[in-house]
Specification:
This protein is 37% helix and 6% strand. The protein has eleven helices and four strands. Bound molecules: zinc ion. Zinc ion binds next to strand 2.
Length: 262
């Protein structure tokens, strides 16, 4: 989980929200009508979300875009942070929608990190289901601090609350949403590779590794598990990113006040 930028503003649902279809009925009905009746709006929403999240799942940070910078078919879904089954207005609230992986729910998706064939493996929004963020103690990604991170990665690939971080979700929530075998194994393998790369660098020169792992690609999308790289590359990575990609670190960018937007 990394902090979510507040830009670009999500505007794709604005016009539909003011229509009869967008402001009557239950949340699921409003959402279903938006997808069915405003295809251009829905397509624009996907572009806005993938841009704002640098192509990563809002929770596990699996990369959801392909090399051509299009969303990987079947690999993503729009997540309602507060379930759309609650207050109807939540369904089309621009600050309540996030881009999320399919959480291991699609068995036909045999691409790295998504392959769900070793159940139980459901993660992210799929594991969250209809629980509310309040019940889970889950902070909205846009309210997370820039630094230090609220969660850390152990050498075994598990996600744990950072010491002293009161904003971190309870460990039970981290375990339920992020510590599933599929993701633990992917992170552990990545950590092993990265440590090996660092061990082999001459005189601790981390520049090449930092450029290859932390920098966005030419489409401005980040690598899967970006925060794992960020943790391992530590102060060097932080300093390099601050100098070259400060926008991604969101230095000087205030968190979005999710309660101030209707
Ligand atoms: Zn995910």
């Amino acid at each position: 989980m990394r902090r979510l930028a507040s830009h670009p503003r999500i505007t794709a649902m604005d016009s539909f929200r003011t229509t009869v279809g967008g402001n009557t009925g239950t949340g699921p009905e409003r959402w279903r009508r938006f997808r069915a009746e405003d295809r251009a709006g829905y397509d624009r929403l996907l572009v806005e979300l993938k841009t704002r999240q640098y192509g990563l799942c809002c929770y596990c940070e699996i990369r959801l875009v392909q090399t051509a910078h299009e969303l990987q078919p079947l690999a993503y879904q729009v997540e309602h942070f507060v379930p759309k089954s609650g207050e109807p207005e939540n369904a089309l609230d621009p600050d309540n929608v996030l881009l999320c992986c399919t959480g291991g729910a699609r068995r036909e998706l045999a691409v790295p990190h998504h392959d769900p064939r070793s159940h139980p493996n459901e993660s992210c929004g799929q594991a969250k289901r209809e629980s509310t963020p309040t019940n889970l103690g889950l902070p909205h990604p846009s309210t997370l601090p820039i630094a230090p991170p609220i969660v850390l990665f152990t050498s075994e690939g598990r996600v744990v609350a950072a010491p002293g971080q009161v904003a971190a979700p309870p460990q039970a929530t981290l375990d339920r949403m992020l510590n599933v075998p599929r993701l633990i194994e992917a992170r552990r393998s990545l950590l092993d590779i990265l440590r090996d790369e660092i061990d082999r660098t001459v005189d601790g020169d981390l520049l090449t590794i930092t450029e290859a792992r932390l920098a966005p690609d030419e489409g401005q999308f980040l690598h899967s598990f970006w925060s794992v790289y960020r943790q391992v590359l530590g102060a060097f990575g932080e300093s390099w990113m601050g100098a070259h990609h400060a926008r991604i670190l969101q230095v000087g960018v205030a968190p979005l006040d999710v309660n101030a937007v209707s």
